[in-house]
Amino acid sequence: MSLKPETRDFLQKESLERFLHYVTIHTTSDDEKAGKTPSTERQFDLAKILRDELKELGLEKVELDEYCYVYATLPSNVDKNTVPIGFIAHIDTSNAVSGENVKPIIHKNYDGSDIVLSADPAVVISPSDVPYLKKVVGENIITASGDTLLGADDKAGIAEIMAAMAAFKKFPQLKHGEIRICFTPDEEIGMGTAKITLDKLGKYCYTVDGSEPGEIENECFDAYMVELTFNGVNVHPGFAKNKMTNAVNIAGRYLADLPEWESPEHTEKREGFYHPMGISGNVEKCSFKMIVRDFENQANLTRIEALKKLNAAYEARYPNLKIEMEVKHQYQNMREVLDNYPEVIELAVKAIELSEIKVIQNYIRGGTDGSRLCQMGIPTPNLFAGGMLFHGKKEFIAESSLRKAAETIIHLSALWADKGTD
Questions:
Q1: CA dist 145 → 136, 166, 397, 402 (Å)
Q2: Whole-angstrom Cα distance, residue 9 to residue 403?
Q3: Percentage, residues of the chain above pLDDT 70
Q4: How do the domains of the chain map onto residue ranges?
Q5: Residue 187 appears among annotated catalytic residues
Q6: CATH of domain 222-330
Q7: Which of the four pLDDT bands, split at 50, 70 and 90, describes residue 331?
């Protein structure tokens, strides 16, 4: 059943106003400080606002802890036992481009042409590059100014969850079971669950952190981090023949030997890759980090074995070279857990349909807090938040997507309330 027009109008207004406010607050995380939670103190600026707003909305057990996690509970309003469910979004934004001084712009009644942002140089969002834009002709489109990212990842998710909580307060006839909210720090640097308190979450949760409206994602990458250090021998270059082992040169040749067709820029859909992320060092020692991704763990293990063979080949080629390799399994494909809890996906699909949106069952070429939560015992698929072109200056969201995601949260909460305890 569709929501009443006044409820939908309320959700549109609430989600838009909150989103436009939240994106102006600088919350970028810092992967160079990933051992500290939160990695940046500025994430507390938004967390404190969210804590206070949740209290104003009448939620219970509202808490902002020392690690910048915000928790809250909305008690059930139905006369039966229900399974507590949770909605999760992350406070931080990517540090890929600046997230400071974000100036959101609403492009009214989008006409289907290029959106030109007057930065220097100008940033152009074109439907020829982003076919999705053709689906939102006539709608209002929100972008940043072209100098920063927008922050829809994941402040759209936060705004949508908060709008839904506001609707539950304003329209008490909207039924729901117990709902637990959690806003996390440092998701963008892979540390969103590092200090999370599991017993404050729902038995089943949903991250609201996806992209196109209608998406429900129950798969993500299986993920490894590989750090390689090349130890060479430094000698004065004037006397280096047959003596120097230049770690910088060798690391460069090594990278060139990785299969180009297995890189992010040459893969799509379910294809995996190697992705070197940066290199530093000198003749004596040179290091780089690389992520290895695939949807199947065995495919990643095959890639890691290939790296070990390449290490051996290089050490044989350069007798004075020593390669150190550290491998860390970061997270696994959440499908391995979610396949055991089909109702978690089935109810989300039904909620999207009740919101009059076409369902897009998809996989994530990345990871979310949900992938780790699945490993920690809480089945957590990913719902759409509506933003597009995350992590860049071309990031945008259709205004209606904010409402659609909030509607989906409302419907999903009612469906779990109907289900009762399992």
A1: 20, 29, 13, 20
A2: 8
A3: 99
A4: 5-220+333-419, 222-330
A5: yes
A6: 3.30.70.360
A7: confident
Domains 5-220+333-419 and 222-330 alike in fold:
no
Q: If you search the block for the tokens 């997230």, which residue do you land on?
A: 99
Using pLDDT thresholds of 50, 70 and 90, give the confidence band for residue 52: very high
Catalytic residue among 187, 215, 369, 399: 187
In whole angstroms, what is the distance from residue 161 CA to residue 402 CA? 10
C-beta separation of 272 from 363 below 8 A: no
Residue 92 annotated among the catalytic residues of the structure:
yes
Q: Which of 92, 160, 212, 262 is catalytic?
A: 92
Residue 305 has φ and ψ, to the nearest 5°, of -65, -35
Instruction: Please report the DSSP string for 55-81 in residue order.
Output: HHTT-EEEEE-TTS-EEEEE---SSS-
Concatenated DSSP letters for 215-271?
Answer: EEEEEE-EEEEEEEEEE-B---GGG-TTT-B-HHHHHHHHHHTS-GGGSGGG--TT-
CATH number for domain 5-220+333-419, candidates 3.40.718.10, 3.20.20.150, 3.40.630.10, 2.60.40.1240: 3.40.630.10
Strand partners, 280: 287
The sheet carrying 141-143 orders its strands as 105-107, 141-143, 396-398, 387-388
pLDDT at 1 over 70: no
> What per-residue confidence (pLDDT) applies to 13?
98
pLDDT surpassing 90 at residue 119: no
* Percentage with pLDDT > 90 across the chain: 91
pLDDT at position 411 over 60: yes
**d(C-alpha 200, C-alpha 197), whole Å:** 6
Neighbours of 344 (CB within 10 A): 21
Please say whether the beta carbons of 139 and 399 come within 8 A: yes
The residue to which tokens 């009740």 are assigned: 354
> Tokens for 111?
């006409």
| Closest to 228 (Cα-Cα) out of 265, 280, 264 | 280
Secondary element (H or E) of residue 29: none
Residue 38's closest CA among 64, 69, 70, 71? 69
Residue written as token pair 């609403």: 106
Q: How confident is the model at residue 133 (pLDDT cuts 50, 70, 90)?
A: very high
Position 422 confidence tier, pLDDT thresholds 50, 70, 90? low
pTM: 0.89
Handedness of CA 131, 137, 143, 147 (dihedral sign): positive
Within 13 Å and on the Cβ side, how many CA atoms surround 421? 3
